[in-house]
Design brief:
Keywords: Isomerase
Number of domains: 1
Shape: globular
CATH architecture: 3-Layer(aba) Sandwich
Structural class: alpha+beta
Protein name: 2-hydroxychromene-2-carboxylate isomerase
Pfam families: DSBA
InterPro entries: DSBA-like_thioredoxin_dom, GST_Kappa/NadH, HCCAis_GSTk, Thioredoxin-like_sf
Strand order of the largest sheet: 2-1-3-4
EC number: 5.99.1.4
Largest sheet: 4 strands, mixed
Length: about 230
Amino acid sequence: MAVRRTPRFYFSLRSPYSWLAYRDLLERYPTLANELDWVPFWEPDELSRRLLAEAGGEFVYTAMSRAKHLYVLSDMRRLAADRELEFSWPVDREPCWEIPHLAYLVACRHGAGPEYVAHAYRARWQEGRNICDRATVARIGDALGLDADELASASDDPEVRREGVEALLAIYRDGVFGVPFFVHGFEKFWGVDRLPAFAASVPLPVRADAGPLPVGAPGRTDEGHAGGCG
């Protein structure tokens, strides 16, 4: 009999839709949130792309058009207002997305993946800070009581890079083309508005009104538009 893999949530610290899905998941489906594998999704730099290709994978995401970007700005205002959320739209100048996402993998090693995600999302989407700035990641490390330099320099560590390639391979193998993206068995769900359908597909005693978890997400370690973002 084939082994069924743990249901997975592909999230990106860059994506505003991932941020909303993260909040909805914790507030509406906390039991489910604790049972998922949380896999970071990011646009790899040249080194990660080379390592990914050497491992037999590729990154299939394509950057959004200007028209889609303008749509996302308007759409996020609506979705945030529906949730009574205020947010700050950050400005990304020559970002290196390995910096915050590989730092997440390091935080997971220390059992602080959930807290790192919470702090990183808050920094980016509520405080408008640049999470690709190593100083921002170091401050998150300090706030979590972790080695700030270890988190800030995660992208320089060959071992962490290799772990990151495993995440990129999972993205490739699951056919993830945008985020948030949920996978359960052979079923795939793209977009924040697909979260209820994903939750319904997982046989857990999950209640949509179960209330929020404590601070932090649980975590274990395009084309078209459906509430997904590139």
